[in-house]
Amino acid sequence: MKHAGPDALQTLAPLLERIRRCALLVEKRVGIFYLKSKAFLHFHEDPSGMFADVRLDGADFSRFRVKTKEEQTALVQRIHKHLSSLKLQP
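Request: output the structure for the sequence above.
Response:
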């Protein structure tokens, strides 16, 4: 599965805009987000659809399909939940 190219990322423009609103994330390149100095989220394109690799446990990437609006919303909710848990830690 290859990393998503510019055309593939364009199809995710509304999702990317939602993710860009997450204050703790920095978009180093289009569609590649970092949390502090560590890679946090990037996208892959595959004949079966688009996928996001996100590091929700702090160590390993987990893969989520983001083909539908429902899947995209679920991803954003997971990201928000994870980032909120980080804010609560001293």
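Strands lie at 2-3, 25-29, 32-35, 38-46, 49-54, 62-65.
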